[in-house]
Design brief:
This protein is mostly helical. About 70% of the residues lie in helices and about 0% in strands. It has helices at about 10-20, 20-25, 30-40, 45-50, 55-65, 70-75, 85-110, 110-135, 150-175, 195-205, 205-225, 230-260, 270-285, 290-315, 325-335, 335-355. Helix 7 runs antiparallel to helix 11 and helix 9 (about 150-175) packs parallel to helix 14. The protein is elongated. About 40% of the residues are buried.
């Protein structure tokens, strides 16, 4: 933003006029500070208005806006930290519970009944995930009520989850010349289901909700106590990394427990990278940043589609070279290396993006508390 003009006019008054709607609608100085930051005002810019930082400038702007008594009293208090609520915690538990029931139903049935059980299980889990994302700390409705998650992005997300359950087996079968039959939903069939990663990822909705809650509320507390944008960013960055590490630790534990109970392969690399990618995408969505997650999710899913398609395309006359890269990877490190590399690259990209965007004051100035 250009510096304040050194004229006889009041520079702060001119800034207030430029951001009149923000000043009049703000419930506290923190909201004005976050809004100014979103419009490109930095601590260096605030110095041109004879203030040490954006927070100090926002306090003067807030104090100079005419308000009634009720508004003034409301603006002097900082919203209390939202508590963990039982309703959204139960919603977060729902996808995992439905996934366990679906897998159990598939394992206990045969023939056409198994097909019906699998279809019903997939639909139930999809509805459970939707319920978990509509309320509580994983919901973006309160932060960006008019923002929509593109249908294409939702489709890519479901592809990534479906690939986690069946993709490795499909890729292995394709490299070996198959598949000869469709999957039957079991772990011992010709196209086995990766039960442990699928269950762990759905059960991890609970730690994802808890870490999102801790990040949001912790950032708001630091917003109240910070005196500058740089200070706030330095305080929130370790909080973001800690929340991310806590989720990864919980997902690792779920994978280990699932592998111990079922005796199946845990798929640590594939599940941890995918879980990290989806968590960071959700963190960004919750705080109103929707473009980067949509692009990265689409890129990751497209890379998995391309990997499988290249193997089948390599069977065409004269096109064997198309399958060489993927076949080499699978023969060297196994089929799980493809989603691990793809989702790992996407997760690292989103982590770097989140470390820049989620450390801004404007990312945490919305309404507080889980709905």
């Amino acid at each position: 933003m250009p510096g304040a003009r050194r004229t006889g006019a009041d520079p702060v008054k001119a800034l207030m006029h430029r951001h009149r709607e923000l000043c009049e609608s703000a419930v506290d100085p923190l909201e004005i500070a976050a809004g100014l930051e979103a419009h490109g005002v930095t601590d260096r810019t605030a110095a041109r208005f004879r203030h040490r930082d954006v927070f100090s400038l926002a306090e003067e702007m807030y104090a100079r806006v005419p308000r009634g008594i009720d508004s003034a009293e409301a603006g002097t208090t900082v919203p209390e930290t939202a508590r963990i609520r039982a309703d959204w915690l139960l919603r977060a538990l729902l996808p995992g519970a439905l996934a366990v029931a679906a897998v159990t139903g598939v394992q206990l049935t045969q023939g056409r009944t198994r097909l019906f059980a699998a279809v019903a299980g997939v639909l139930a889990v999809a509805l459970g995930v939707r319920a978990a994302l509509t309320r509580g700390p994983l919901s973006s409705a309160r932060r960006a009520p008019h923002a929509t998650h593109p249908a294409a992005s939702r489709g890519w997300t479901w592809w990534l989850l479906g690939y986690a359950a069946l993709g490795d087996a499909l890729l292995r079968a394709a490299v070996d010349g198959g598949p000869d039959r469709l999957p039957d939903g079991t772990t011992g069939g010709p196209w086995p289901l990766a039960v442990v990663p699928a269950l762990a990822l759905t059960l991890s909705c609970v730690p994802a909700a808890l870490t999102a809650h801790l990040l949001t509320e912790g950032a708001r507390r630091r917003l109240s106590g910070s005196r500058g944008l740089t200070e706030f960013a330095a305080a929130v960055r370790p909080l973001l990394w800690s929340a991310f590490a806590l989720y990864v630790g919980c997902l690792t534990a779920l994978l280990a427990v699932g592998a111990a109970i079922t005796g199946e392969h845990a798929g640590y690399a594939q599940a941890l990278t995918l879980g990290s990618l989806l968590l960071l995408a959700r963190f960004l969505h919750v705080h109103g940043f929707t473009h980067a997650p949509a692009v990265i999710l689409a890129g990751a899913a497209s890379a998995e589609v391309l990997a499988v398609a290249s193997v089948f395309a390599g069977r065409l006359p004269g096109c064997g070279f198309l399958a060489v890269p993927v076949e080499t990877l699978v023969d060297t490190w196994g089929p799980g290396c493809v989603p691990a590399l793809v989702c790992g690259a996407g997760a690292l990209t989103l982590l770097a993006h989140a470390s820049r965007t989620l450390t801004r004051a404007s990312a945490h100035a919305g309404p507080g508390g889980p709905a």
